Amino acid sequence: MDPVYLDNNATTRVDAAVVSAMLPYFTEQFGNASSIHAFGAEVGAGLRTARRQLQALLGAEFDHEIVYTGGGTESDNTAILSALETRSGRNEIVTSTVEHPAILSLCAWLEKTRGAKVHYIGVDARGRLDIDAYRKALGPRTAIASIMWANNETGTIFPVETLAALAHEAGALFHTDAVQAVGKIAIDLSGSDIDMLSLSGHKLHGPKGIGALYVRRGVRLRPLIRGGHQERGRRAGTENAPGIVGLGAAAALAQEHMEEENTRVRDLRDRLERGLVQRISHAVVTGDIENRLPNTANVAFEYIEGEAILLLLNKAGIAASSGSACTSGSLEPSHVLRAMKVPYTAAHGAIRFSFSRENTDADVDRVLEVMPGIIAQLRQMSPFWDGESKTRTAFTPTYA
Amino acid sequence: MWEYSEKVKDYFFNPKNAGVLEDASGVGEVGAIACGDALKLMIKVDPETDRITEARFQTFGCGSAIASSSALTEIIIGKTLDEALAITNQDIADFLGGLPPEKMHCSVMGYEALRSAIANYRGEVWENDHEEGALLCKCFGVDEGMVERAIRNNVLTTMEQVAHFTKATGSCGTCVEGIEEVLERTNAAMVEAGELAASQAFVAGATPVVGRKAPRSSPVVAPAPPPAAKMTMLQRIKLIEAELEALRPALQSDGGDCELVDVEDNKVMVRLSGACVNCQLASVTVQGIQSRLAERLGTPVRVIPVPSTH
């Protein structure tokens, strides 16, 4: 039986068309775009096409607003560090408690080593940002506000346009980690208040090791990597030509499939979610159901632990993920679900299923077929499970 | 994916002795849902031979937690209680062909549950109830005795190892100093007993490099001096009442409450209500009340939550 891959928020398969577009750049088109000869010139043309493809997906007004990087994490680092250096007299950062570690670890390091003050804005039970707290945290000392476009674990979408406008009122820059949003929902940065946006190739059926930072025209950028004139001196190093061409091709494909992502893929996700909740008691969908990515489902199964579920799913040929990592170093369930105050009874058993356009109805059928048995098997073994007759009052999910 | 041995996978996918053991003669429970893993071990003992004839388990936890629990039952069936008590967490890990370092706490959980189940069978209700030392890591309910045993049984000499084996310090990190103290003291005692080379012993504050200075002599941790040990029952009840009263505002601020139901010898029956009911941290709350009362009374007490009347 074919394996079922439902971990597309972790990474995606590189589209066959993307691979085809990239291959010549490993062989015939191996030149360095900076060279004066024909080898370089041809590569230069390919890179320009790729840049326009990505520009179109983002709705960016100018092609030079795109700076290629080594991935989403580098883009995040570049944006925050640049803001602290270019906004003199401002050393505060406003971010959320549910950001990716690419932001959270960086902020913790800046607090420790650079004396930066970081405001971590909380979320409510559905994962929605506390806008009042966000507004209050912004001030004359804020260098940058950085809030993700969509959360990687629950898919919850944040109102980034509003947040960007509020940041500007305080004279601060606004950056968004849009690694999970780009390619899944329509984005139009023309006329936007967003100053910087991070994205990553491998989340949209592009290659790993390539990403980009959108920097709105007029926003000063201090490079993270120095040593060359590439990307107008904003990111040194010989261009990753195959990666850039791959990301361009992936962006073009994502734009073509945008409608499918928000109709067919969304329907698959919804059918899986409904099916699981109908078939399995004490299962709760987390996140902002009305306002989230079309491909992400996060379902918490009470009284059992996530890793055990994943191991059994894996045995059945199904790949999914859990926010929790049961190790001695990080026994807390997902920081995102804890920020949402999902009770421990459920947070340890949360499973994320993330779809892509490659998924089919058969994939959903397969999960719905095996999941009830897996959950029952583990609950049978759990000392906290009293059987189906358990009254629901024992646990009242206020977050769904 | 974890690099689990084939045996770990086998014991996870096809666990032996999972489920409830009816008429168990001893039950040991460790962990809590808030901690991410919990184990209930049930054993049946033949009183004639003192042998464990049956053992079953129920586990909430990851793959290696379930495998360790199952392995434990296989190891102890047929053993006498004394033989079983000689088993350490290392035996469980060895039986499974090893565990990843970050998962060693799963084997320690099995070891602690076994001690607890045997103590329960023998009627030693105090054995695993934190009377042997303060609750050090509140997040995971790890007491001094458990940390010491893990250090001795596995010859642990770094804080990272202690976290891997007991989970202590793994969450909020506020117990780091307390655990460092126990590690330093226990290592020092092991050096004295010739079980550990002085150069290996942990010294708080020292960087973990070869050739650091020898450990200081073990600092003596003085337990809180017991106040007036001789109290009449009435005095005791008055004191318990006053203490509980003082604790109530904190519970109420979390939407819960607590009232005294009865006092019987060293048992203090309380009723948790409001948000405390079904709160997965209720056991931590009970532990907190217990240590506070023990400190004030100067004698060990056992706080037992009783079900609320409907």
UniProtKB/TrEMBL annotation, chain A:
Protein name in UniProt:
Cysteine desulfurase
PANTHER family (alphabetical): CYSTEINE DESULFURASE, CYSTEINE DESULFURYLASE FAMILY MEMBER
> What is known about what this protein does?
Catalyzes the removal of elemental sulfur atoms from cysteine to produce alanine. Seems to participate in the biosynthesis of the nitrogenase metalloclusters by providing the inorganic sulfur required for the Fe-S core formation.
Q: Which SUPFAM superfamilies does the entry mention?
A: PLP-dependent transferases (SSF53383)
Q: How does it assemble?
A: Homodimer.
Q: Which EC number(s) does the record attach to this protein?
A: 2.8.1.7
Keyword Transmembrane helix on entry: no
Q: Which organism is it from?
A: Gluconacetobacter azotocaptans
Annotated keywords: Iron, Iron-sulfur, Metal-binding, Nitrogen fixation, Pyridoxal phosphate, Transferase
Q: Which domain of life is it from?
A: Bacteria
Cofactor(s) needed, names only, are:
pyridoxal 5'-phosphate
Q: Where is the Aminotransferase class V domain?
A: 4-367
UniProtKB/TrEMBL annotation, chain B:
Functional summary from the UniProt entry: May be involved in the formation or repair of [Fe-S] clusters present in iron-sulfur proteins.
Q: Which residues bind Fe cation?
A: C35, C62, C106
Q: Which NCBIfam families match?
A: NifU_proper
- Keywords of this protein's UniProt record, alphabetized? 2Fe-2S, Iron, Iron-sulfur, Metal-binding, Nitrogen fixation
Q: What is this protein called?
A: Nitrogen fixation protein NifU
Q: List the SUPFAM superfamilies hit by this protein, alphabetically.
A: Fe-S cluster assembly (FSCA) domain-like, SufE/NifU
Q: Domain NIF system FeS cluster assembly NifU N-terminal, which positions? A: 3-124
Query: Which stretches make up the NIF system FeS cluster assembly NifU C-terminal domain?
Result: 240-304
Q: Give the record's family classification.
A: Belongs to the NifU family.
A Gene Ontology biological process in which this protein takes part is: iron-sulfur cluster assembly
Tell me where in this chain the BFD-like [2Fe-2S]-binding domain is found. 136-184
Provide the cofactor note recorded for this chain's UniProt entry: Binds 1 Fe cation per subunit. Binds 1 [2Fe-2S] cluster per subunit.
Q: What is a single molecular function from GO for this protein? A: iron ion binding
Is Transferase among the key words of this record?
no
Q: Which Gene3D superfamilies match?
A: 3.90.1010.10, BFD-like [2Fe-2S]-binding domain, Fe-S cluster assembly (FSCA)
Source organism of the structure = Gluconacetobacter azotocaptans
Name any cofactors this protein relies on. Answer: [2Fe-2S] cluster; Fe cation
Give me the residues that bind [2Fe-2S] cluster, please. C137, C139, C172, C175
